[in-house]
Amino acid sequence: MGLTEIETRIEQACIEAGRARADVQLIAVSKVQPNARVEAVLNAGHRLFGENKVQEAAGKWPDFKTQFDDIHVHLIGPLQSNKTRQAMELFDAIHTVDRPKLAKTIARLAQELGECPELFVQVNTGEEPQKAGVTPAEADAFIKDCRALDLPIKGLMCIPPVEETPSLHFALLGKIAERNGLASLSMGMSSDFEQAIAFGATHIRVGSAIFGERTHD
């Protein structure tokens, strides 16, 4: 499919939703993609990428940042507390703040480092036991606790259950964000990003549709 076609589809989805294209950021999910594919997308002018693992990002992005200006990399996978410092030094945003221990670790390191990436609280909208994220019922209190720690919470993130209609989860995430005064919604992937845009997504995460199928997981 490729970057150009995805950009065209985003443009069309924004028109249909009555939204400005500038209000939706495309995160090209580069996890486990060969460097040659990532470089091709960089050469096409794209500068915002998503990674799932701190170690993989650490082995990839410092080199690319010496070759290309203005690269932004977001962590969209789960973050272990012991990798927090490295993550905060590597990433411009972390989309997976999902538990008090992690929030407290980020707050402590932000004080120490004098800066902090933009943060998104991950909400487990489907309440799936195997997935990370606070439940919808816990979200308001957790957001309040993060703010009490002076964390720069920018928005919310979700990954809807595979077998359920994603729009129900996008609507739920939007409601939680609205009542907490949060402007950003990280939701929507290759298969459902048009629906996500219709429900107010500000950050969509598209991987295989841009890069081609991953070689392994």
Overview of this protein structure:
The protein has 217 residues and is α/β, with parallel strands linked by helices. Helix content is 44%, strand content 16%. α7 (166-179) links the parallel β6 and β7 (184-186). The longest helix has 15 residues, at 3-17. The radius of gyration is 17 Å and the shape is globular. The model has no long low-confidence stretch (mean pLDDT 96).
Q: What structural category arises from helix and sheet content?
A: alpha/beta
- Regions with little confidence, pLDDT below 50 for 5+ residues: none
CATH arch. level architecture: Alpha-Beta Barrel
**Fraction of residues in helix:** 40-55%
A few lines on this structure:
Helix content is 44%, strand content 16%. It has 217 residues and is of the alpha/beta class. The longest helix is centred in the first third of the chain and has 15 residues, at 3-17.
